[in-house]
Design goal:
Elements: E1 8-13, H1 20-35, E2 38-42, H2 46-53, E3 60-63, H3 70-73, E4 80-84, E5 93-97, H4 99-111, E6 118-123, H5 127-142, E7 148-152, H6 165-172, E8 177-181, H7 184-197, E9 205-210, H8 214-219, E10 225-227, H9 231-246, E11 256-258, E12 263-264, H10 277-289, H11 296-303, H12 307-318, H13 322-340, H14 345-351, H15 357-368, H16 372-379
Parallel strand pairs: 1-2, 1-3, 3-4, 4-5, 5-11, 6-7, 6-8, 8-9, 9-10
Antiparallel strand pairs: 10-12
Helix pairs in contact: 1-9, 4-5, 6-7, 10-11, 10-13, 13-15, 13-16, 14-15
Length: 395
């Protein structure tokens, strides 16, 4: 006779939104389906949570902590608690988006395209925007580079963007320039302002957003490159941590930050601005042939310089080797196929130049932090073809 699994009573104290927390909930659901014994009670506000918990004690709670005085309420629950984002509550385990890593990813994306003038568009005195800006500036500062900031009040960026202060700021920027927008909505407004000003994207202004929102990225012209947001994975990892706590694991002392999974590259950053002709030729050859199972000797033959000289240029300018660039190009193409097609992992691995599904999965997991199947489920904007998967390694 099969062993009966005792159900776990779970309190989901999250706001009922379609944006960030809507994706968080999808990640929680993904894990809940895999364990099969969660009975979930949704409490979208602290008042509803208080009233519900007067006569009910959950085995575990996932909470946003965004509204009300959760710091006074949560300790009295005497149960396992994982906080999703927000300001850290003392004594509560927490999983959150790594906003600093998002900013670092933006800077690295621009630098690998040879861009040398930078700007940031975000919100004034808004934690997550400030953190993304800080990560962006950290990478640039380490290279001796600076950026020009635009920080609008929350909500004001959206008002009169095409003809107002945002457009005036875009007009004032030295060209060519790369702008990191704190999220896709701001990126779309920047693209609209550029169109109004007849500023060419990406030749004069390259634009990068965050969250890979198909609505905003797709309506802008040209389509906007965007950092793959981690909201769904935040929910998944929060659910994993809660399950571990309910099984008796020790509460972690530090918050767990989920990094972004890379960049969905579209036309708004499809530019290569390096002055080094050899490096430019090598990068172009890698992007055109990475999926043909090439290796470094083929790149050397295509560029017609010595391997030692080519590797030195890669290290000095891009801070990585030609082999690492080939793996990055293959992985980027694999991400695109995972998100935009229903091809199997084996088919995608073979199309991206890997000899087997196992080799592809090993490299992909090492580079991205989760396996290809789980990546598809956590980052795709539509349902994946694969019905189930296991948890991947965390970066």
């Amino acid at each position: 006779m099969a062993k009966t699994v005792e159900p776990k009573q779970i309190g989901l104290f999250l706001p009922p939104t379609l944006g960030y927390f809507g994706d968080v909930v999808l990640g929680i659901q993904e894990y809940a389906r895999s364990v099969g014994n969660w009975v979930v009670e949704v409490c979208p506000t602290i008042d509803i949570a208080r009233a519900t918990c007067e006569s009910w004690v959950p085995d575990g709670v996932l909470v946003s902590g965004m509204d009300g005085d959760w710091r006074a309420f949560l300790p009295n629950l005497n149960t396992n608690i994982v906080q999703i984002g927000g300001h850290a509550i003392e004594g509560v385990a927490r999983v959150s988006t790594d906003n600093f890593a998002i900013g670092r990813t933006a800077a690295e994306h621009f630098l690998e395209r040879g861009l040398r003038r930078f700007a940031f568009c975000g919100y004034d005195q808004t934690d997550w925007s400030d953190e993304r800006e800080a990560g962006f500036g950290q990478v640039l500062s380490a290279r001796g580079l600076e950026y020009i900031p635009f920080r609008g009040k929350l909500g004001e960026i959206f008002a009169g963007a095409v003809t107002g202060s945002l457009a005036a700021w875009v007009r004032s920027l030295p060209k060519p320039c790369a702008i990191f927008a704190c999220h896709d909505r701001a990126a779309m407004l920047l693209a609209n302002a550029c169109a109004y000003l007849k500023v060419h994207v990406p030749e004069e202004v390259a634009i990068l957003g965050v969250d890979n929102d198909q609505l905003e990225c797709g309506f802008a012209w040209p389509p906007i490159s965007s950092i793959l947001g981690s909201a769904r994975r935040v929910g998944f990892e929060g659910a994993v941590l809660l399950d571990e706590l309910m099984r008796g694991a020790t509460k972690p002392e530090q918050s767990f930050f989920v990094p972004p999974a890379g960049v969905a590259v579209r036309q708004s950053t499809d530019v290569l601005a390096t002055d080094d002709a050899d490096l430019r030729a090598a990068l172009r050859f890698i992007r055109e042939h990475a999926t043909d199972a090439i290796d470094v000797p083929e790149v050397v033959n295509a560029v017609l310089i010595s391997r030692r000289k080519l590797e030195r240029k890669f290290r000095d300018i891009l801070n990585r080797t030609p082999h690492e660039e080939i793996l990055r190009a293959r992985t980027a193409h694999a991400k695109m196929l995972l998100l935009s097609t229903r091809l199997s992992v084996l088919e995608i691995g073979l199309q991206c130049g890997f000899p087997s599904a196992s080799k592809f999965s090993t490299v992909f997991t090492r580079e991205v932090g989760v396996g290809p199947k789980l990546f598809r489920r956590l980052y795709s904007t539509r349902s994946a073809a694969d019905p189930a998967d296991h948890r991947g390694t965390v970066m």
